[in-house]
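Lab notebook, bench 4. The sequencing result for the construct came back, and we need a structural model before the next group meeting so we can plan mutations. Quick request posted to the team channel:

Model the 3D structure of this chain.
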Amino acid sequence: MRVIIFGLLSLQLLTVVALSAPPTQEFYGDSVCLEDYVQLLKDMAAFMNHLQAKDFENAQALGQEVSARLPAISSGHEMLFLVGAMSENLALAKESLQTLVDKYFIYPDTYTNFFPLLDQIHDETTRSGMNDAIEEFFQRREAFLKSKLAVGINRKMILVELAYLNHATEDEADTLPLLDEIATFDPALVKTFANTPLWAENLRMHGLVDQVRAAWSRWSGTPEEKMRGFVAVVSKMESMSAALAFSPICDWSAHAAGYIPRVLATKTKQEYYEILAEMVHQAGDNHTSLRFPRDIELAYTDCGLETIFADGRFLVRAVTGSTLAGQAKPGDEILNIDGLPVKKYIDQHRTKYPFVSAAFFKPESYASYWIGERLLSGRRGTRVKLVMRRPDASTYILTADRPLQPPARVPETAEPPAVEVSVRPDRICLITLSQFTGSDAYAQFKKLIAPLDTAAFKGVVIDLRENRGGNSGVGDAIFAHFVEAAVRNYQFDYTPVLIPQKIAAYSGYLRVYREGSLIQPAMDKPIRCPVCVLTSPRTGSAAEDFAFLFRHHQRGQLVGQTTSGATGNGLPVSLPASGELRVNLNVNLYFGGIGLTPDHPVDFTPADLVSGRDPQMAKALQLLGAD
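Done. Here's the predicted structure in C-alpha cell form:
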C-alpha cells in the first residue's frame, strides 16, 4: 500500500510558547506549545501505523482526538481526510475538507498530495465525488488565503502556500505571478518549482529562472554585497545550526566578528568565499558547509591522477590522463608538490580553494580523505611538478598539466545501481548499497532478495564504502530484515528546540525527540546470520545512520575505515554570486565529529592498489568463515 505522507509529518516548531488566540484573528498564522508539539509527533507515528495496517477505525479516532485538541491547526483534520480518502468514505473526506478551509497549514507543500490520492480509490463514483470535493476545497482555500494576504501580515508564508496550491492544480497562469514575487526572497524555491514536469515546456518559467540565475550569479564586490552575504551566513548559523552548540567555537558572534575586516578587504569573489568558508568550516561539522559559486568550481581540475589518502600517505589510486600512462602507476606515493613536502603544501593551502572546503572538518580522518581525493586539483591551464615514490622505494619526478578547457562532451557513464546483491558458492551474501537517494532503493533491495533463500545464508557482507547517504528511511527498512524484535533508531539525534529565556543559563537547547523511531522486524525474508559492514570516510549521513544500527544493536561488525562523522538535514541559504550555505539542522550525539571507528580497522596499502586487492572485503570474508 502506498501511503501519502502529508505535511503533518514534516511538522516544524514555529514557536515554543503558544499565546492565547484572540476572539477574532484577522491574520494567518498560529503556533503550538512544546508539550503539544511533542505529543503531536507521537500521534503522527501512531496514525501512520494505523493507516499502514488499514486500521481505519483507530486512525479516525486519533484524528478526531487531535483535531479536538488542536482545532486551529490542520494536522488532525488532515488525518481525518486521509482516513476518508483511503477508506473510500466520501462523506468523511468531504466533511474534513470543509473544515480544513480555514485551518493553519504547518507545511505548505501539503497540496501536492491531495490529487494523487485519487489513484488509490477503486470505485469510479467515489473517485469522481472525491475529485469534485478536492477541487471545491482548493477554490475555497485559495479565496481564504487571498483574504488573509490582504491583511498584510505573514505575506511571505501565504505567497508560498498559494504557489503550492496553484501548482498542485497545474494552474500555470496563477502560479507564475506568485513565483515572480517569491523569486525576490527565495530564488531556490523558484528553481525547485521549475524542475518539475509541469514547467518543462513553459517559456515564461524558463525566462523567470534565467532572470533568477542572472540575479543570483551577479557579483559586484561592493561592501554592501559582501556584508549581505556575511550577515546571512552569521545569522542563519547562529539561529539554526544544531552543530554549533557542540563545535570548538564557544562564542560564534565573537568568532564571526573577527572575520569582518578580512571579508571587507577581499579583492575577488573567490577570496571572499574562501574567507566565508574558513569561518563556517571551523565549526567542524562536515554537514555544515559553504559551497563556492559554480564558475569557481569549474575553473579547477586535476592533472590526470586520481589520488587517495590511505595507510597514512597520499597515493595514486588510478591514472586517468592519457599522457601520464606508463609514468605514474596505482600505489605510487606523492612526496612533494611544487617544491613542498605534501604536508607543508596542504598547510599552506588549507585556507584556499579547494582545501578550505574540508580542511577544518572533524574527524580529521574525514578531512584527510577528502583532501586526498582533491590533492592535485588546481586552476585549469596550470602545471604541477611532483616527486613520486614507487612501492619499491625508488623515486622519480613527474610533471603534469591541468587541461585548460573542460572536455567538449563529458562521456556518459551509467550510475551504479543503488543496490547490488550476489551470493557466493560458500553461501555468503554480498550486498552493495551505493546510495540511499531516491524512493526506489528499498524496492530494489526487496526485488533482489525475493528469489533468495535468506535462511540459508552463512553470512552477509554489506558494502557501504561509497554510500554518502540519502534517505535514512531506506536504511531503516533494510535493517528491519536483520532484526527479530523491534529496535529504535535516532536515539542520539539532536534537533535543537530553542527556549530563548533559558539560553543565558546554558539550558536553552533541548532535543526534539526523547526516543528514536521504532523499526519493526520485516515480515518476510528475515536475515539472521552474522553480518560484516564495510565502511570508509565516504560512508556518511543516512549511510552512517545505517551503520550505526549494526553497531548500537550489536547486529554486525564494522570493517574498514572510520566513517565520515556527520549526519543531518540541511537548510540551504542562498548567497551572493550563486554560492550557498548549508546549515545542518540536526546532529548525532554518538558519532558526530568522531565517526564510527570500525571493530576491525583495515586500510589500503600501496601493494593493494598495485595488485587491485581489496583487503577490507578479504577481512570481512575471513571473519564470516569464507571458504
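The chain is about 40% helix and 15% strand.
Will bring this to the meeting.
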